[in-house]
Structures are given as C-alpha cells and as structure tokens.
Amino acid sequence: MDANMFMQHFINALGLGSLYGLIAIGYTMVYGILRLINFAHGDIFMLGAYFVFFATVQYKLPWALGAFIAVSGTIVCGLLVDRVAYRPLRGAPRISALISAIGVSFFIENLAVVVFSGMPRPVVQPPLLMEAFSLGGIRLVPLAIMVPAISFIIVAALLWMIYRTKSGLAMRSISFDIETTRLMGVSVDRIIAMAFAIGSGLAAIAGIMWALRYPRVEPFMGIMPGFKAFIAAVFGGIGSVPGAMLGGLSLGFVEIMSVAFFPRLSGYRDAFAFLLLVVILLVKPTGLMGEKLEDKI
Amino acid sequence: MIAPVNAGHARRNNILTLCAGAAIALLLWQAPGYIDAYKIRIINLIAINAILGLSLNLIYGMGGMFSLGHAGFMAIGAYVSAILIITPDQKQIMWILDPIAPWVRDMRAPFLASLLAAGIVSAIFGCLVSIPVLRLGGDYLGIATLGFSEIIRILITNLTPITNGPLGLKGIPPHASLLMSYGCLAVMLLCMTRLMRSNFGNVIRAVRDDEVAAKTMGIDTLKTRVLVFTLGCFGGGVGGALMGNLITTIDPKMFMITQTYSLLMIVVVGGLGSITGSVVGAVLVTTMLEWLRFVENPITIGSLNIPGIPGMRMVIFSVLLIAVIIFRREGIMGMREFSWGWLLRDGKRGGTQ
C-alpha cells in the first residue's frame, strides 16, 4: 500500500470515525446522567436521515433548510421518547428502563417500516459536495472534508457548553449526584430533557451526513451504527464527551484499516467492533478516558 | 419461598401432577387428528418458546444476569443439530458457495443425540464466554453478551465450509413433533423446579439478590453464575435445535437480536424468576404474535376493504412490551409459582411466596 492509498483510507476513516463519534456523544451523555443505555439512539439517528431525505429529495427543499427541519424533527422525537418511555421509569431498577429502551428501539424501527415502507430509498447527493478535486495526489470530494470538520466544530461547541455554561454545570452535577443536584434547585427533568435534545440533535446531524456519504436510507440503517457508536462510547470511557469522540475515531480507524490491510477479513468487519468492546470491557472497563465508578455497598 | 406442605398433601400433589401430565400427553397425542396443521405448528412453537423462555429466565430471572445473547446460543444449537441430522449426500449438494469441510459432511447422529449435542456445544460456548464476561455487571453484561451473539452470527455467515454461510441449511428433517417438543418441555420443567427447590436454588437466589452478602457467606459467586449461565445456554441450544427442526430451514438472519427480544418479552410478561410465568408468557406471546398477523393481512368487512399494513404486527408488539414494563413491571406471575395447594386453597390463602 502506497502513501496516497493510505491517505485515502485515512480520510475515509476520519469521516466514518467522526460520524460514530457524533452518535456516541448521545449515548455517553444519557448514560453519564441516567446510567441508561439508550437503545433507541441508533433509531433516532435513522429518523434524522429519513427526515432529511423527505425534506430534500421528496419535497425538494434546499439542503440547508432540509437539514434544519431534520434536526428539529429529530430533537422532538428524542424528547418524546424520553417523556413517554423513560421518565415514568426514573425510580425503577435500571434494567427495567433498559428493557423499555429496547422496546422503544423496536417500536421506532417497525413504525418506520409502516410509515416510510421497508424499501431502501436512494438519496440524491448535492452535486456541489461531490465534485472531486485533487490534493497532493489524493482524490477528494468536499464531503470527505466537510464531515470531520463539522463534527469537530460541533464537539468543540458542546465541550464549551458543558464546561463553560450554567446548564453544562448542572448536567455535570446531575451525573455526579442526582438527588443533591435536585436539592440545589436544579430542574433535573429539564436538564435531562436537554441532554436528550442535544444527543438527538447530534444524532440527526450524523444521520444527515451518513445519508450524504452512503446515499440511501432504510428503516434498519440505525441498528449497526447505533451499536458501534455505543461501543465507541464505552471504548472512550462512557460519560466522557471527548472520550466518545476519541472512541468513535478509534473505531473508524480499526474498521477501515483492518479491511484496507487485510481485504480477506472484510466479511468480519462488523465483528471487529464487538471484539473491541469485549476486549476493552475486560482490560479497562472504564474506557480510555472514563472515570472509575465505585461499587456502592 | 416454598410453603410448608405436609406429607399427605405432597403425595396428593404428585398424583395430581402425574394425572395432569398424562392428560396433556393424551390431548397432544390425539390433537393432530382434530386440529389443522397450522394450529398444531403454533402449539408446537409454544413449547419451544417456553423452553427458550425458561432457559433465558434461568439466566436473567433466577440468576440475575441480564443476557442479550440468547439468539447466538440458539443459533449454535440449531446449526449443530441440523448438521448432525442432515444426510452427507444432502449436505454435499447444499454447499454451493464453498466446498463443505469433509468432517462436517461425514458427521451423523440420531435426532435425540443431536439435541443433546446442540445443548452441550451451546453450553461449552456459554461457559467460555461467561468466564470473562460475567465479571461485568448489569447492563454492561447485556451489551457484552449481545456482542458475542453478533460475533457468533457473523462467524456463521462467514465460515462457509462449516455452516454454508448466508444461504443457511434447508431440508432439516422435521423431527420436532408435538410430543417431542412437549416431552423436552416436561423434562426442562422437571429439572428446573428440582433445581430451584434444591439448596443450589437457594444459592442462585442468594447470588442474585445480594452478591456481597452471598460472598461473605462463603459462596463462590463467580462459579455459581458461570454454572447458571452455562445451564441456561444448554437450554438455549436445545431450544434452538428444536426450532430448526420445526421450521426445517435455518439461516443466520433468523438469529438476529429480534429473536432475543421476543424471548425477553416472554420472560418479562410472564414474570422474572417464575417458572410458571415463563410458560404463561410463552403461551401469550406466541399466540399473540400469530394472532397479530391479521393486522398485516387485508381485511374485508362487507363492502369495506382495509388494506394490510406490513410491519404493524411488530409495532403493536413493541408498544405492548413498553406498556408491560411501565405499568406492570413484575409481569403476570411476579415471582410466584403455580402450585396445587394454591389452586385447591390448602389451609389459609395458601400457595407459595
């Protein structure tokens, strides 16, 4: 493999990894606060992709407007999921909420089959983003640069929000101790809803960019990216936003590079992520950047 | 857990159980003459789902280990059994993507031996998987087992010389007759009630309810959990094998996470930790899933035509799962069990619990 080829794979991995990272942030924020694996998150991502498909391909709206509508619509869905399926179970054992999350995931997927039909649909990519140009011997499309760039800007903004604003402080405080935070006069349910809104918004952005990169949408498209993003979140250290991004990038690189260097393994591509998960859970369950959760007795 | 039963009652209960068993066996034996094949198939599926539900309940409800990997262990069982009972000639024809590995082609075993082999191979995998994974608790365990189940599925899809890859196996001899499935269920029920009433049953419950306390009492908690997990995987393998024999074709797509979800539904609806609950859950969930097929078929009432809605069945199914977990978390039976004493009102408001 020559240097150019490697750079091609490198950029590809950067794009895929940052998309995993964006989805992983939604998992990590909800888990950090509620200790709940939001199984439905991958399906929220799918909704984002579908909304942008309907807005731009079906109703021929401009892409910017379509993206705005898709993000808003997805945020509303994310908030609804929290309100209907998770909030009634706040005091319940964690596994109950997890089963509810599994139910919601199943529900959204099948509702998508009913409403959008089960057939995959092609997404028309805007030609502006697909005009290939050459940069030092590597052929690139603007989209390949745009995806990681947008992702990094969003993560920077999110980190600023979490560490520099009052809402961010409240969020960190809830993940530390929910009851004390309530006593300090923070509206806990509102902040949790906010975490869901941010997570869903990021998932929608990832969904839009995914639909541009792999130009088709189908109701079950969220399952695999969802699982992998969750693995990325665990790998990076669940609860940590920079960790989620780091985990996403690592996973992107592992997937793309292993197949690039060992093409015979391409059938096992999806297994790498799960293998990575099992290894990290056994070696360092807190992940790369996670804080140690103490066992309470 | 177990209500004190005096000797007379114990003998009466045993006789009642035997009579009920004989009556059910007679009904099942005669049923194919009176009921159409489709209904027989559903009744059969109930038994298989009950076996699978019970084995998941052993891991999750009784052992307290949240496992989402049952579909993977079912897959192992189904493949092992199918490979053992399909004839070498049939296998030779079926493998078209890649030539079949000679040792796979030449393996043969009678049906019952293949069931046992299915359970044992699943159990070995379960044991190997559980030793590292069971150090994790709660939801992490769920995700890790889910990961293993996906890895198993990906391996089956790719190891074409052994499994025939994505094409799956066809023409499995339909050995899973009504009596066979219910026979397996009866054996399973007997073993599970014996197990849970034994002292080891108490150990299992102790580890589930308070691991630290169990440890201080000198229980090797990891060993207990590995053993329970392995036993559950055995059940999963046998159930998967029966499923393959009932449907007569298997392929990797059959054993996706959806399969685990419906088992989870059976266990949750019936009641976590209740043997009776899993059987009740299997009856309800299986019949409901079949009955819900009508929403996907077009309906004609008089001159009114309602077109079928594909996918609607699973929407309703998932709404029910969410509703059960929000409004009746303990399921139908909770942790209670069926007993003759409860049915016949021995003593006070008797029964177990």
Structure description:
The complex is a heterodimer of chains A (297) and B (353). Chain A has 297 residues and is mainly α. Chain A is built from 12 helices and 4 strands, in the order ααααβαββααααβααα. The longest helix of chain A is centred in the first third of the chain and has 32 residues, at 3-34. Chain B is mainly α and 353 residues long. Chain B has a single domain (33-344), classed as ABC transporter involved in vitamin B12 uptake, BtuC (Orthogonal Bundle). Chain B contains 16 helices and 2 strands. In chain B, β1 and β2 (304-306) form a beta hairpin. The longest helix of chain B has 28 residues, at 7-34. Chain B is globular. Chain A binds chain B through residues 35-37, 84-85, 88-89, 92, 94-96, 98-100, 102-104, 106-107, 109-111, 113-114, 118, 223, 227, 230-231, 234, 267-268, 270-271, 274-275, 277-278, 281-282, 285, 297, and chain B through 66, 132-133, 135-136, 138-140, 142-144, 146-148, 150-151, 154-155, 157-158, 212, 257-258, 261, 264, 268, 309-312, 314-315, 317-319, 321-322, 325-326, 329.
Main β-sheet, spatial strand arrangement of chain B = 1-2
CATH class of chain B: Mainly Alpha
Q: What are the low-pLDDT stretches of chain B, counting only 5+ consecutive residues below 50?
A: 348-353
CATH topology of chain B: ABC transporter involved in vitamin B12 uptake, BtuC
Give the topology string of chain B: H per helix, E per strand. HHHHHHHHHHHHHHEEHH
Quaternary state of this entry equals heterodimer
Calculate the terminal CA-CA distance of chain B, rounded to whole Å.
Answer: 5 Å
Tell me the major beta sheet of chain A: 2 strands, antiparallel
> How much helix, percentage-wise, in residues of chain A?
over 70%
User: What's the β-strand tally of chain B?
Assistant: 2
Portion in beta strands of chain A: under 5%
Based on secondary structure, the structural category of chain B is mainly alpha
Domain count of chain B: 1
The structure class of chain A reads mainly alpha
The helix/strand series of chain A, from N terminus to C terminus, equals HHHHEHEEHHHHEHHH
Main sheet: strands, sense, barrel of chain B: 2 strands, antiparallel
